[in-house]
Structure formats: C-alpha cells, structure tokens
Design a protein that fits this description.
GO molecular function: homocysteine desulfhydrase activity; methionine gamma-lyase activity; pyridoxal phosphate binding
Distance between the termini: 74 Å
Bound molecules: pyridoxal-5'-phosphate
Strand order of the largest sheet: 1-7-6-5-4-2-3
Number of domains: 2
Family: Belongs to the trans-sulfuration enzymes family.
Cofactor: pyridoxal 5'-phosphate
Largest sheet: 7 strands, mixed
EC number: 4.4.1.2
CATH class of the largest domain: Alpha Beta
Number of helices: 13
Radius of gyration: 23 Å
Keywords: Lyase, Pyridoxal phosphate
CATH topology of the largest domain: Aspartate Aminotransferase, domain 2
Amino acid sequence: MKAENYADIVTEVDKEQAEPFVPMAPEIVQTSSFYFATYEQFMADSADEKNHFVYTRGSNPTIRSLEDKLAWLEGGEKCKVFASGMGAISSTLFTLLRAGDHILMVNTIYGEAVSFAKYLAKFGVVLDKIDVGNTDEIEAHITEQTKMIYFESPSSQKFEMLDLEKIAAMAKTKKIYTVIDGTWASPLFQHPLDHGIDIVIHSLSKYIGGHSDLVGGAVIGKTNLVDNIFANGHQALGAVISPFDAWLAIRGIRTLPVRMAYVDKAIRTVLDQLKNDPRIAKIDHPYCGDAEQQRLASKYLSGYGSLFGMDMADEDFDKLKVFVDSLRVVSIGVSWGGFESLALPSYKGNNKENLVARGLPISHIRMYVGLEDPQTIVTDIHQAMDKAYGKI
Ligand code: PLP
C-alpha cells in the first residue's frame, strides 16, 4: 500500500494483500469490529447479526468456523460458542426458562450449573434436583410446570448413565426441553441429538481444547433454539469467546480423534488394573458399572471418556492426604481433558455434609487419565496407595 498519513498505516494496512497466500493452519480474525462497504450493507448486516459479521460480541469468522465444525461433529443444525461451559449453560437456562417454570436436574451435575439453576429461584424458576437409580423414575417428578430436563450422561462425580431415548420420549409429548451436558464423552463418543435430545452443551475447556490452555463452551441443537439462545443468552449476558480461544479450540479439533482414541484405550488399561485393588472400595465409570450401565454404555457410547471417580477403602482423611500428596505423575488440579493426568479429592476438609447429600464418601477422588503412558499412571497410583496403606 501507499501510505499517505498515519491513519493509512493504522487502519488500512489490512485492506490490501501484498501477495496471495493460502495458510495451512486457519487464520485468526482477531478483530472486535468489521468494516462495511456501504451504509446499505451496514443496515442489512446489523439487522441480522447472528448471520453477519458486525461486532465480535455477536459473530466472528474464526468463532463461526468453530461453530460450524462443532455443529457438524454433533450432527446438529447449529452451534453457538461461548466464553466458557458455564456461559453456555447459564445462557441456555436464562433463555429457555421463565417465571413459574420447573426445571428437573437429574443425578450428579457439574456444581456451578446446579448453583445457577438454584439462583433462578429469584426469577420464579423452581428447581428440583433429583437422584434416580433408573431413568423411568424421572417421569414421576415431571409436573405441569416442567419446562426442562437437564442432565449429564455419564454424570459428573458418579459417572452414571441415563437412557437418552427414554428421556426424550417422556419430554416430547409434554413439550419439555431436554438438555444434556455431553462434555465427558466429547462430540466423538456420543451423539445425543440422534436420540431425540434437544440441546447438547459442551465445555470446550476439556477434551475439545485438549491442552489445558483455553476456556470455552458450546450449545448445539435445532436452528430456532440456538438462534433464540444467541439472541438472548449470548447477546445479553456477553459470555463471548475470544477469536484466539476459538482458534485454539479449532486446533484442538484437529487432534481430537487421535486423543480420544488414546484415552479410550488408556482408561481401560488403567481401570483393569485398579478395579480389583482392595485399597479401592469403588470405581465410578461406565466401564466398571453394573449390567444395566454397561448396556446403556454400549447403546450410547462409541468410546470411553477418561474421567472417573474412585473411593478409597477407608473414609480416612489422613490416608486420603497421604495418597494424594504421594502421587508423582498424577497432579492435583481442577478441570480435565488436557495432556496431564489429575487427581481432585472431593473432600475439602469442611464439606462432608455436602458430599453425604450427594452419596459420596470423604474418600472420593475424581481422577482424570491424560495422555501419559497409562502404565506409568497405574504405577504412580499403586506407589501412592502403598504409601497410604502399605504394600499389598
Ligand atoms: N460441564 C462439566 C461436565 C464440567 O466438568 C465443567 C467443568 O468445568 C463444566 C461443564 C463447566 O465448564 P467451564 O469450566 O468451561 O465453564
């Protein structure tokens, strides 16, 4: 370009391309706003912001590219991406529920999602948090006011599966929205929309990002539902992902199949060697579940996520501390889905009542198997158990 003044350099440098090129990696469109060639175009685009690039708080080409990929992976009509999984969850509930509505949250669910649903009491939304051993039991909790059944399958902490088709069938006749947080299985191992569920939510911060370096979320479903969540939840609450984080998530999608195939194999290798250890009272993961859980897993999952729960044999805080602090390869840390294996005890020294209410002992630990050699992880868990209990 031929610059004549400072503004030419600052604002017009991107309008001309010195030499045509095709980058192998996608480009990041790191901009807050977009130019319009004419006033006409500005009026048309800003009247339909969900389909046009006006301002990145609405839409952006890098974010759109991620949304198209996620919609395709889930087999959904449309996807909207958010700044976090919680941004996606809160925007969905905020948009689809109104005063007088009843929301059923089934089995263990990511805690902040339950807290947000509870908070909606302030706006007249009634939450029922129920625990069921069997999917059929949900029906008895549906009322005239029920507007949404929200669940995870497998669930957080206890990793119990529910029957997606039964939930979809009981909700359809009563015009109840069904919403699943599908983060555990990723969009590769489970396709809830194919089984009649209305909305799938993902935290992109886990497997999709895959490297513990981004926070994001997504909502996928029919166009009219996603557009409604865009127009209200996304636009009003402003949980907007940055183009850079969207770009990182796109990069994550490039290796998602390879990483998921790896963890599917790794988790089975690890659980096969832990499930008979007398120092472990219980493992919560569909691979180790009863016949009904395994039936549901074979019906709905094409692979296993590598997040599981483990109860140490004794409800002994000292043994729990020795075990967790003795781990050398597995680290202590929140979140999951990245390279590194993690251990996260549910007990924080002051929340026993809370755990009891969820049916968890204080010795419950959420474990994540990452991308290290699974044998190294087993050896690490065994040596830490040896420190807590002595060798077996
Ligand atoms: N859903 C599940 C199953 C999670 O484990 C998390 C964890 O953080 C979330 C949702 C929330 O996602 P984010 O941390 O991206 O807000």
